[in-house]
Amino acid sequence: MRRFITYLLLAMLMAFSAEPSFSVTPVHEGLIGAIGEGIVPASVRERPPGLPRELRPEKGSDFDENAIWLSGYWIWDPEKNSYAFVKGIYRVPPPGMKWQPPRWIERGGYWIRLKGYWHPIDRSLARLQQTPSLCKVEEKPTDSPLSPCLYAPGFWVRDLQGGLKRSIPGRWVVLEKDRTYTPADFVFDGEGFILVPPYFDLPLEKRFAVKAGEGNSTNLDALLVELFLSYPDYQFFLQEHFVRNPAYWLLKGSVPSWWLWKGSTLLSRTESWWLFWWWTHPGFPQPEWINPELAAKIYPPSTALVETMQRKTPPSIVMSWGAAELDDLLRVINSHRHNFINFIPDSEDVKIALAGLEPESPDQVHPLQPEGKHPYLSLTGNSWPRFNRTEDSSRAFLFSGKFLPFGVEEAR
């Protein structure tokens, strides 16, 4: 009861506080990488600039002795329609992991950015010579443990010998103080798709080279703002951070109401982007599984967030009518290239083909709007179609009007 009152007071304080600003800078993907971003990489006509000479900060007495230098790199900024440089950083690496830096390659007159990623030191990664299947694994998780936890969904891979699919089952990840969970990810490396296995990383505040202090607090705050604007690509990380630091997020405002619904990490990247884009873009078609009852439980975002998101370029899967599944997007891309190496998702013929993914008769004459009346207490009810796949599994994913962190069951 005491915890509930604390959260209630924080929510009330947040409701009367000034709206947050959203001034951001690019995040080095060696500090935290976007899940799913490397499957359909950015491709542009303009050649990237040469890498500048970076001056590494000197390691002082407040530096962690395990920190290593991760060089900076160029990204394409679609908002500015130009390249932007992400500065290098010192970072304490995940235990047992090695950094593969990002790079640009040229294919068919286009420059393609291959994202950087962490991979195990003691084993090589398998490369799939065909596009991976990204459809969701239909699964029925058991009830969560008593410890605070999040559900990491399963995923599909292809068996290279027989060409058959096999699924990697999902799991409950118990949240521990000194480690965070990074889900599995597929990354295109110029020759094929690399399956990067899941691994445990350091908590965010311990990844910085400079040991805990006032400077880290500022860096952490700016980092979380930047990640939040692309929340679906950092879904598991951000919701895990929310579970660990609910007061921080409640005071910030603009926390999606569904972060308080158990099982929301089961949303696919497409489902998350569609829901997030609808939430932050008034008038955008809602996901097909959002009905009036659910829309009435989702508190609207802040004006500052809406204004910021209006200037944001949508990811490749977000269309004018909603969001396309990555499997469909890859299928269109594959049908408009000569061979596996010609991977140019931003070419004009692919953009034209993407229009074919739009439903023939979209039923969105009057899109719904998020109309929750209370910031984080609109949690009554027991209907969430995507999670409630079977009647007897619904309790594993849904609140029944009670304010509890993800995965924490009431003591019986």
UniProtKB/TrEMBL annotation:
Residues 1-23 form the signal peptide. It comes from the Bacteria. The keyword Signal applies. Keywords: Signal. This is Putative secreted protein. It comes from Estrella lausannensis.
